[in-house]
Design brief:
Elements (H helix, E strand, L loop, with lengths): L2 H12 L8 H11 L5 E4 L5 E5 L2 E10 L4 E7 L5 E6 L11 E6 L2 E7 L22 E2 L5 H7 L5 E4 L4 E2 L4 E4 L2 H19 L4 E8 L7 H7 L6 E9 L23 E4 L5 H13 L5 E4 L8 H4 L8 E8 L7 E4 H17 L11
Parallel strand pairs: 3-12, 3-13, 13-16, 14-15
Antiparallel strand pairs: 1-2, 2-12, 4-5, 4-9, 6-7, 6-9, 7-8, 10-11, 11-17, 14-16
Helix pairs in contact: 1-4, 4-8, 6-8
Length: about 350
């Protein structure tokens, strides 16, 4: 990952985009892919598709732009903001956090209150649901608060991007800025290599609310195969515990993860593994006996069935403000997808031979 590619990733990670409010990060993504794509288009909800024109077959690489977060649900008489969840926000990590409320007039800063340990009965500690928590923005009355925020304003954690050791880094929203980074970079690398097939890079919205953007895009995406790039659980940290084998074998820094089963089309899986082997790229495997929980589940049932694959990016501490990834996994994923496009040359679709 060179400096310009890393700067692009940092811009994605520092641009707030809770589900339903993705426009700002989509603008960053569109600006980047416009430098090499033959066409870039967006739809009414902000899904973005970049096209690198070529021959058949056409392959699509898609990530989702939205992140989990909170939203202003109400304001109480003392000026405290009451939040609700946007996507799968975890109530065990929200308290004691700095947050930003994104209003029409700019950012209002606040903190999610947490009663001091001295004032709590720690023998009876319970995790309050997000709706029972409060955001303190520093005012004393409801009127003051309503001058600053409106019901429905989105809220994100105020967490910076942090360099860890080596090629590891931490931030909120790795889920799934890393996926749209890989989709864009894979298409750029495919374009630079002048691969023969047509390549689509896709950045969808509202995945965290039920893969809604992928359903919109999949309706008319003219792709012979679609690969959804999303984070997956790395289980190599102590918090997973001794039963980590129940959650797979994924490790941080060991390469992208090819899922097998359910929505993952066997021909696309096989081609991805062959492309990785030919390019000498590390890959890990993951069992997916039910749904993947990613945009792949929306793509593979679109238009009578688009052969699809979920390509995972190892991620520790998912849905917290301190998600950790290894940038080498991102680079390997982008290279793998560019190699996948190259290896697709001359194929007449991806149908199963029955």
């Amino acid at each position: 990952m060179d400096d310009s590619q890393r700067a692009f990733l940092d811009r994605l990670l520092t641009t707030p985009s809770p589900s339903g409010f993705e426009a700002d990060v989509q603008r960053e993504w569109v600006a980047y892919v416009s430098e090499f794509a033959d066409e870039v288009r967006t739809d009414e909800y902000g899904n973005a598709v970049a096209v690198v024109e070529g021959d058949e077959p056409a392959v699509a690489f898609a990530g989702h732009a939205d992140e989990i977060g909170l939203m202003v649900s109400s304001v109480d008489e003392d000026g405290y903001v009451r939040p609700s969840r946007v996507g799968g926000s975890d109530p065990t990590v929200t308290k004691g956090q700095h947050v930003e409320i994104h209003t029409d007039d700019g950012v209002v800063r606040g903190v999610v209150g947490q009663t001091a340990i001295h004032l709590r009965d720690t023998d009876d500690d319970e995790i309050e649901d997000v709706a029972e928590q409060h955001v303190d923005i520093g005012v004393e009355t409801e009127a003051e608060a309503r001058e600053l925020v409106d019901v429905g304003d989105p809220i994100t954690f105020d967490t910076p991007v942090r360099e860890l050791q080596g090629t590891r880094m931490a931030a909120r929203g790795m889920d799934n800025r890393v996926g749209i980074w890989v989709a864009a970079e894979a298409a750029r690398r495919a374009a630079a290599a002048d691969v023969a097939p047509t390549v689509y890079a896709v950045s969808t919205v509202q995945e965290e609310l039920g893969k809604q953007g992928a359903k919109m895009v999949g309706f008319d995406l003219d792709a012979d195969a679609a690969i959804a790039i999303d984070v997956t659980h790395a289980v190599d940290s102590p918090d997973v515990g001794d039963e980590r084998h129940q959650h797979g074998e994924v490790e941080l820094g060991a390469g992208p993860v090819v899922a097998r089963g359910s929505s993952n089309h066997p021909e696309v899986v096989a081609l991805a593994r062959e492309a990785a082997a030919d390019a000498d790229l590390p890959v890990q495997l993951q069992a997916s006996g039910r749904s993947t929980g990613t945009d792949a589940d929306a793509f593979y049932t679109s238009q009578g069935g688009i052969p699809s694959l979920n390509l995972g990016l190892p991620n520790r501490y998912m849905h917290t403000p301190v998600e950790v990834i290894d940038t080498e996994d991102l680079d390997a994923a982008a290279d793998l997808l560019a190699a996948f496009a190259e290896r697709s040359t001359g194929r007449d679709g991806f149908g199963v031979d029955v």
